[in-house]
Amino acid sequence: MPPSEFSADNFTLVTPRTFDQLEIGEIFRAPSRTVTDAHASAFQAVSADNHPVHYDVEWARAHGHAAPVVHGLQVLACTAPGATLFPHIIGEVFVSFESVSCRFLGEVHAGDTLYPQLEIIALSDAGELGRVTTAATVHNQRAELVLDGQHTYLLRR
Fold it and tell me: Any idea where the MaoC-like domain is (predicted)?
């Protein structure tokens, strides 16, 4: 392709859509990921969370855990919209990631495989903007729901 015909706009992963083209019930999955000790160690370094439940095998066992527990915020991070196709679908209309909330429903340990997804559960008018609310969930390899919550985003109309 000659340089004069090149356009970075032709390198989108999916056809971008507007707020008004989104539908309640659409699901955006992130690739599954098996959490390793290395992931947990890296997150510990970044978060500065040095509670022994996250790295001390004997401390964790003495306090009723089968193994060190992966940081809850690390599990929540698996629901980042950028891990899915959602940011590519909303293209240039994204304004802001407005809020996030979650409940930690089960422990995650190194060796667990996580399956995150976002599902559009509400679309609401916000004046010149539109608000998208997604249910954020993470299941483990045993089909246990280990996290649920919500994200909200503002998009240009």
Answer: 24-131
